[in-house]
Amino acid sequence: MLAIERRDYILKKLQETGRVQVSELSEALQVSRMTIHRDLDALEEEGLVKKVFGGAVSAVDYRREEPMGRCALCGRPVNVHTRVVLRTRQGNQIEACCPHCALLLLETRDDIASGLAVDFIHGKMINLKTATFLVNPDVVVCCTPPVLCFADEEEAHRFQLGFHGELTSLDEAQELTTHHMNLSASD
Ligand SMILES: [Zn+2]
Ligand SMILES: [Zn+2]
Predict the structure, then answer these.
(1) pTM to 2 decimals?
(2) Which of 7, 31, 43, 97 is an S-S bond match for 71, by CB 3.0 to 4.6 Å?
(3) Distance from the alpha carbon of residue 103 to the mean position of ligand 2, in angstroms
(4) C-alpha atoms less than 13 angstroms from C-alpha of 185 in its C-beta half-sphere
(5) Which ligand lies nearest to the CA atom of residue 146 in the structure?
(6) Rounded to an integer, what is the distance from CA 9 to the centroid of its chain?
């Protein structure tokens, strides 16, 4: 089993139960505990899990179905399917209703250390820094222009074929979003 498959398995387990044990994972995946520890270290580095004695817990509460609060930028209720969780350098957690607002928060605040977004297709939390962004597709999700996040560039590309928009990395996505906002403001 590849590292990426183990990682998906671990994240899926965490979504279901909120907590995983190294011993259980090593048995279920037929690999050494050492390997599981390394997998968890990598996931922790990405901000997806938090290691605890004997295992790990979710860095975010995946099981929460209710909106968690309001967007730190626009004040809309946070939607569980599009939310972005940002962590500040001081260790505080702030939320954005969707990647659109997350990009603007990243641009206007200089105290944001990391972020987790929801993959638009699979609903799992992914690292904002390595996500593929689709800016201004023909879908109504939350804020305008809509911005969607994908873990897999290939899937993002297939989505783009049907719904258009521009595929970008994080840096370009910020520029494009402000560009589209300026365009609609001058209409
Ligand atoms: Zn917002
Ligand atoms: Zn929004």
Answers:
(1) 0.67
(2) 97
(3) 10
(4) 6
(5) 2
(6) 17
